[in-house]
Design brief:
- The protein starts with a helix and ends with a helix.
- 66% of the residues lie in helices and 0% in strands.
- It has 156 residues and is an all-alpha fold.
- The chain has helices spanning 3-32, 60-64, 79-98, 102-121, 125-152.
- It contains five helices and no strands.
- The mean pLDDT is 92.
- The protein has one domain (3-152).
- Zinc ion binds at residues 44, 46-47, 49, 69, 71-72, 74.
Length: 156
């Protein structure tokens, strides 16, 4: 694999990891409060204002907004950007360690999400299972893209 492809895959993985981290915090909150897991818009749980795309960028938005809702000023807990950053790091590290084994890599990612979701929301089994199905869907799409790129590069 050339340095170019390696860099592109690593950056895509970091972005995907941060998005999964951001959705994880949303899904975990919604599962625990029995709210729908898929909605058209993301909103502030305090004031209900729909958030713009700029206010949903993992980690960066939290820093730019000084950890407060842009509309009502409610504090956004520090654990949100920390979880997003943690996912980004986990995805980056597993990629660096296992990028030559794409199936293993994809398996590790989804396993981590399943373990964390059960750890956080096991008392809401129905919502947790729904959440796991959604995360599995995201990972299947990403894994398919990964495998196509690997196949195109002749690495499979
Ligand atoms: Zn708000």
């Amino acid at each position: 694999m050339t340095t170019y492809y390696f860099s592109v895959l690593l950056i895509c993985t970091l972005v995907f990891g941060s998005i999964i981290g951001a959705y994880f915090t949303t899904a975990e909150y919604r599962i625990r409060f029995d709210k729908p897991l898929i909605t058209k818009d993301c909103y502030c749980p305090e004031c209900g204002h729909v958030l713009s795309g700029l206010h949903q960028i993992p980690v960066i938005s939290w820093i730019a907004l000084s950890g407060k809702c842009h509309y009502c000023g409610t504090k956004i807990p520090l654990r949100y950007p920390l979880i997003e950053f943690g996912f980004t790091c986990f995805y980056g590290i597993t990629f660096l360690l296992f990028f030559t084994h794409p199936l293993f890599l994809c398996g590790l990612w989804i396993a981590a999400v399943i373990v964390l979701l059960f750890f956080r929301c096991s008392s809401h089994l129905r919502g947790t299972l729904k959440g796991i199905m959604i995360f599995t869907g995201y990972h299947l799409i990403y894994s398919a893209v990964f495998l196509i790129i690997y196949a195109a590069l002749g690495l499979l």
